[in-house]
Amino acid sequence: MSRNEIKVSVILPIFNAEKTLTKTLNSIIKQTLKEIEIIAINDGSSDKSGTILKKYAHEDSRIKVLNQANSGVSYSRNRGLDNAEGEYVFFIDSDDWIDEDTLEKMYNFAKQNQLGFVACNHEEQNSTKMRTEKIVRENKVLRDSKDYFEYFDALFFQSTWAKLFKLDQINYKFDEQMQLGEDLAFTYSFVNRQTSLGFCAEGGYHVVNQNPSSLSKKYISDLDVSLEKQYKIWEDFVKRHEGFAKEYSYNMLPFGMYMLMTYFSNLNRYDCPLSYIQKYRKADFFYNSHLEWAEKKNSSLAYASLFDKVAYVLIPTGKINLILFTFSIKEKMRRAKFFIGRIRS
Questions:
Q1: Where are the alpha helices (DSSP H) in the chain?
Q2: Of the four listed, 70, 89, 228, 328, which is most buried by Cβ atoms within 10 Å?
């Protein structure tokens, strides 16, 4: 297959994914859209992931395996982008899978409507989710800020998976210095340059998040840097989309408060080495350095979760001891749900 014939480049970073990789690869190679390439980046795996990749690459010439020393998911995705030759790019994680017609439906919808960005439905199959995803049943071209907000949950901008990106419109790389939120930064930076977006209700992406050691669940010592970068990108987005900003501020938890919640949650991760006094000092310093993030807005919180509503009342009080205690309970509940879910599966 020549470069001009490749419609979608699927970028798949892998690190120690021997238990899930086969299902992920099978879901990709069985796609009804055949004009694809699969760029698999083996990020220094020490398990059997490399052997699995070698076997699949031998059987399917569309699979290109790139081996490297462990360098992180952002570096891996950037290397995938550097080697991509398709018209569009689709990111997938090594423990997830997609319906067999997902790429065909998304690609056709993108071409028919001349779109640079298309998202599809996603379903999270892990026990830590706080609410069930709303499955959208209708294809939609989103042309204004009101549409963006109406489809905000479905678009799931904080992730790069379940989306097609037009390769020749990507001029932003994943920030390899960010420890959390690099997906959000990439997606918002791309969307900010689009005049219209697409949502394809056909096909689907399945998130199977069952690795308790994944980065999103581990303590990050310098998380403040990543959160400040996320907030700056968010500010740029809402400035460009005033209609979206108005709807969001009235119906959702303020983004800055969400950043504070992420910081407090991080201090309560199971592997955080800090003493309680150290946690308190870090939380107090970060909170007082970002007081504007703790401000209440005139919001109905119509689309917020129950815990979001609790945080909306609690965080502006500045009572660090109570905040840390509340988030420690939340973390214990999250981990209990996670391991119960693994036993059931």
A1: 21-29, 49-59, 73-83, 102-112, 145-150, 152-155, 182-191, 223-240, 242-251, 255-267, 276-289, 306-314, 320-344
A2: 89
